[in-house]
C-alpha cells in the first residue's frame, strides 16, 4: 500500500518520470516499504532506549544520567549504586530480553500457523513451561539452569501435543486452539497444586509462575537469558524470512525451494526454546507474544515482521513494567497484570472481528 | 460409537455428541448411577489417609463411638463427602444447561471463565469489602458469575456463528487471564489473603465448613429446580430458535430461566468449594454417551453421576500420595483436560 500511495516520494534524481526497465520499476516499488521498515525499526529502537532509561533512572529514587554512567563505569555512590545495579537496571534489561523473546516467538508462530490467535501463550506453551518450572522449583528444589531445562521440557511436550492436532496444510485450526486452551486449564491446575504444597514463602516466590513478574531478577538470570537470546534470536530471524512463503501452501512453497517440514520443525523448536527460556525466569507474562505479532504486522504490512515483533515485545514489557511498578502508589504489581489488562481486551476485540476462514 | 456407523441417516446433534438414541435403558442407567453413587459415598467415608476399621467408622457414623479421634476423622470425612455431593451435582447440572443453551459441546463453567469471575469477585470482596462469611462469598460469587456470563455470551454473539465454540473458549480464556491478573495483583500485595486464598483457589472439598451447605442451600435448590426443569427447553433449543418458537416455546423466557439456574449453580458451587474445573464437561459427555442426547435424561443422570465423580476424585486425591492429599479440583482438572481434548477432536465443522 505504501508503494501505491508514495509514487511521488523523492526518488533518485536521475530517474525519469517513467521507469525505463522492469528492474527500475521493481526497485522503485520496493523502496517505499523498505524505507518504511527502516523508519519503524529506528522509531522502535529510540522508544525502547528511552523506556529503558526511564525504567532504570526515574523511579521512586531518581538517579541522574551522569551518575548512572559513573556507576556502570565502576564508581560507588551510596544508595544510588544499590538501587540502580540491584533493582531498576536488572529489571529493565530483563524486560528487554524476555520481551524480545516472547515477541519474536509469538510473531513467528502466528506467521507460521497463519492464525493471529496461534501465539505460544494462547496455545498453552508458556503454561507448559511455567508448570514445569514451578514443579522443578517447589517439588524438586532445583535452581538456575536446571529450571530452564525443565521449562523447555514442559513446553516441548505441550508443543508436541498441540501440533499433532494441526489439520492439513499446517495452519492453526480452531481445534488446535481449543486443545491449547484445554491443556492450559489442566496445567494451571498443576501450578495451583504446587502453590498449595509449598510453604507460604515458597508460594509467594512461585506466584511468579502464575502471573509473570520481574520483581526478583538477578544478574545470573540475565546472563542465562542473554546467552540464549543471542544464540536463538538471530537464527529465528534468519529462518523467519522464509515463513511468508508458506502462505502459498506447502506444495507451492516446496516448489519455490523451501524445505517446508525442516522449516516448520526448526521454527517450532526455536519458538519453544525462546518461550521456555524466558518463562523459566520471569513466568508467563500474559499476552506479550500474542500482542506483538499483530502490532508488528500493522507497522510493516506485508513484510517479514518477526524482528519488529521482537522489538515491539521488548517495548511492551519495559513499558508495562514501569506502569506496574508505579501506576498504583506503594504497590509493586506483577508486570503480567498490566500486560494481561492490555492483552485481554485485544483478544476479545479480535474475536469480534475475526473472519470465518481463520476460525476453521 | 459403533451405533453411528449403523445409523448414518440420523441427523447429527448440535451438541457434537454421538448421534443415536439411548444405548442404555433409562431405568437401568439410573439404577446403575445410584449404585455408583452409593459406592462412591461408601468409599469416601471408609477410605482416607488414616486407615480406620470399617466397623469403627460405621459406629462413629451412627454416633455411638467411644473414641473421640475416630469421631473427629469420620466427621470430617462425612462433611467433605456431603460438600462433594452438593458441588458435583451443581457443577454437572450447570454444565449440561450451558452446553444445551449455547449449543456448544465445550461450554462449561470453568472454560467459559465463570469460575474465574466468581473467584475474582470473592477475592475483591475479601480484600476490599471485608467479606468473611459464606453468605457474603455466595453473593459476591453470583455477581461475578453473572457479569462474566453476560460478557462471554455477548462476545460470542458478536463473533461469526461458525466459529462459536472457538470464540467462546477464547473469550473464556481471555476473561480467565484478566481475572487471574487481578487476583494475582490482590494476592501479591497481601500475604494473608494469599495464604487463605491459595487453598480456596484450587478447589477442594476438604476443610470447608459443612454448615456452609445450609447457608448456600437456597441458591443451590433454586438453581437445581430451574436446571432440572429445563430439559424441554434445552431440547427445543437444540432444534433452533425458529422451530422452538413454532413448537410453542417462549424462547426468551425459558432460556433466561435455564441460564439463571446454571449461573446460580455455578456460583454456589464455586463459593462452597472453590473452582472445580471440567466436571461440568466430563460428566455430561459421559452421560450422553450412555443414554443419548435427550436433555431430560441427561439432566437427571448428570445430577447423579456428577456427585459420584467429584466424590470419587476426592477419594483418589486422598489415596494417591499419603500422607498429603491432592485437592479434588486438581484431580478433576488432570482427568478433565484429556477428556476435553477428546471432545474437541470429535466436534464437527472445525
TrEMBL record, chain A:
Origin organism of this chain? Phycicoccus avicenniae
Gene Ontology terms, MF aspect: transmembrane transporter activity
Key word Transcription present in the record? Answer: no
Query: Which family would the database say this protein is a member of?
Result: Belongs to the binding-protein-dependent transport system permease family. FecCD subfamily.
Cellular compartment(s): Cell membrane
Q: What is this protein called?
A: Iron ABC transporter permease
Q: Which residues cross the membrane?
A: 38-58, 64-85, 92-110, 122-142, 149-170, 176-196, 225-245, 265-293, 305-326, 332-351
Coiled coil ranges (UniProt) are none
Looking at the record, which segments are called Disordered?
1-26
Question: What's a single GO CC term here?
Answer: plasma membrane
One GO biological process term: siderophore-iron import into cell
Q: Which UniProt keywords apply?
A: Cell membrane, Membrane, Transmembrane, Transmembrane helix, Transport
The record ties this protein, via PANTHER family, to: FERRIC ENTEROBACTIN TRANSPORT SYSTEM PERMEASE PROTEIN (PTHR30472), FERRIC ENTEROBACTIN TRANSPORT SYSTEM PERMEASE PROTEIN FEPG (PTHR30472:SF24)
Amino acid at each position: 500500500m505504501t508503494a501505491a500511495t508514495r509514487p511521488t516520494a523523492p526518488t533518485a534524481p536521475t530517474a525519469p518520470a517513467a521507469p525505463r526497465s522492469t528492474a527500475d520499476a521493481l526497485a522503485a516499488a520496493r523502496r517505499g516499504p523498505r524505507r518504511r521498515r527502516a523508519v519503524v525499526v529506528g522509531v522502535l529502537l529510540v522508544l525502547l532506549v528511552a523506556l529503558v532509561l526511564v525504567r532504570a533512572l526515574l523511579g521512586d529514587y531518581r538517579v541522574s544520567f551522569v551518575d548512572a554512567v559513573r556507576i556502570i563505569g565502576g564508581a560507588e555512590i551510596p544508595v544510588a549504586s544499590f538501587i540502580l545495579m540491584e533493582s531498576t537496571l536488572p529489571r529493565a534489561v530483563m524486560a528487554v530480553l524476555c520481551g524480545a523473546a516472547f515477541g519474536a516467538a509469538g510473531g513467528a508462530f502466528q506467521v507460521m500457523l497463519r492464525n493471529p490467535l496461534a501465539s505460544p501463550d494462547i496455545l498453552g506453551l508458556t503454561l507448559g513451561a511455567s508448570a514445569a518450572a514451578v514443579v522443578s522449583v517447589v517439588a524438586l528444589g532445583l535452581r538456575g539452569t536446571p529450571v530452564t531445562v525443565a521449562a523447555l521440557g514442559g513446553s516441548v511436550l505441550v508443543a508436541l501435543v498441540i501440533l499433532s492436532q494441526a489439520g492439513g496444510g499446517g495452519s492453526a485450526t480452531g481445534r488446535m486452539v481449543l486443545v491449547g486452551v484445554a491443556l492450559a486449564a489442566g496445567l494451571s491446575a498443576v501450578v495451583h497444586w504446587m502453590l498449595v504444597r509449598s510453604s507460604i514463602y515458597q508460594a509467594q516466590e512461585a506466584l511468579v509462575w502464575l502471573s509473570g513478574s520481574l520483581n526478583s531478577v538477578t544478574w545470573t538470570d540475565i546472563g542465562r537469558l542473554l546467552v540464549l537470546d543471542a544464540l536463538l534470536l538471530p537464527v529465528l530471524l534468519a529462518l523467519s524470512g522464509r515463513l511468508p512463503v508458506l502462505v502459498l501452501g506447502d506444495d507451492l512453497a516446496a516448489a519455490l525451494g523451501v524445505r517446508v517440514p525442516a522449516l516448520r520443525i526448526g521454527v517450532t523448536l526455536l519458538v519453544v526454546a525462546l518461550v521456555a527460556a524466558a518463562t523459566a525466569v520471569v513466568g508467563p507474562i500474559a499476552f506479550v507474544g500474542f500482542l506483538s505479532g499483530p502490532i508488528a504486522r500493522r507497522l510493516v504490512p506485508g513484510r517479514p515482521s518477526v524482528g519488529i515483533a521482537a522489538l515491539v515485545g521488548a517495548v511492551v514489557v519495559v513499558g508495562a513494567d514501569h506502569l506496574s511498578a508505579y501506576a498504583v502508589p506503594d504497590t509493586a504489581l506483577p508486570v503480567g497484570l498490566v500486560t494481561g489488562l492490555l492483552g485481554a481486551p485485544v483478544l476479545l476485540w479480535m474475536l469480534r472481528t475475526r473472519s470465518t476462514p481463520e476460525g476453521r | 460409537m459403533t451405533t453411528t456407523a449403523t445409523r448414518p441417516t440420523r441427523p447429527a446433534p448440535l451438541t457434537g455428541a454421538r448421534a443415536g438414541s439411548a444405548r442404555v435403558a433409562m431405568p437401568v442407567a439410573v439404577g446403575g448411577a445410584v449404585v455408583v453413587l452409593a459406592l462412591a459415598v461408601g468409599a469416601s467415608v471408609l477410605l482416607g489417609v488414616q486407615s480406620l476399621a470399617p466397623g469403627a467408622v460405621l459406629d462413629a457414623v451412627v454416633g455411638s463411638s467411644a473414641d473421640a479421634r475416630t469421631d473427629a476423622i469420620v466427621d470430617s470425612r462425612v462433611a467433605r463427602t456431603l460438600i462433594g455431593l452438593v458441588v458435583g451435582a451443581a457443577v454437572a447440572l450447570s454444565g449440561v444447561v450451558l452446553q444445551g443453551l449455547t449449543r456448544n459441546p465445550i461450554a462449561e463453567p470453568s472454560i467459559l471463565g465463570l469460575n474465574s469471575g466468581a473467584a475474582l469477585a470473592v477475592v475483591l470482596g475479601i480484600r476490599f469489602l471485608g467479606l468473611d462469611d459464606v453468605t457474603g462469598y455466595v453473593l459476591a460469587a453470583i455477581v461475578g458469575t453473572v457479569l462474566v456470563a453476560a460478557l462471554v455470551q455477548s462476545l460470542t454473539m458478536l463473533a461469526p456463528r461458525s466459529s462459536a465454540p472457538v470464540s467462546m473458549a477464547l473469550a473464556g480464556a481471555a476473561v480467565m487471564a484478566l481475572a487471574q491478573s487481578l487476583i494475582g495483583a490482590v494476592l501479591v500485595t497481601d500475604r494473608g489473603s494469599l495464604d487463605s486464598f491459595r487453598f480456596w483457589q484450587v478447589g477442594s472439598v476438604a476443610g470447608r465448613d459443612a454448615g456452609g451447605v445450609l447457608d448456600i442451600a437456597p441458591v443451590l435448590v433454586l438453581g437445581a429446580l430451574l436446571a432440572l426443569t429445563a430439559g424441554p427447553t434445552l431440547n427445543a433449543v437444540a432444534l433452533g430458535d425458529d422451530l422452538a418458537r413454532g413448537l410453542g416455546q417462549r424462547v426468551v423466557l425459558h432460556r433466561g430461566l435455564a441460564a439463571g439456574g446454571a449461573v446460580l449453580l455455578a456460583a454456589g458451587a464455586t463459593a462452597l468449594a472453590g473452582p472445580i474445573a471440567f466436571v461440568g464437561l466430563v460428566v455430561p459427555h459421559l452421560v450422553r454417551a450412555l443414554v443419548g442426547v435427550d436433555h431430560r435424561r441427561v439432566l437427571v443422570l448428570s445430577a447423579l453421576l456428577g456427585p459420584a465423580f467429584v466424590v470419587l476424585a476426592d477419594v483418589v486425591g486422598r489415596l494417591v500420595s499419603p500422607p498429603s492429599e491432592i485437592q479434588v479440583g486438581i484431580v478433576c482438572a488432570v482427568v478433565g483436560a484429556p477428556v476435553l481434548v477428546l471432545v474437541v477432536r470429535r466436534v464437527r465443522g472445525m
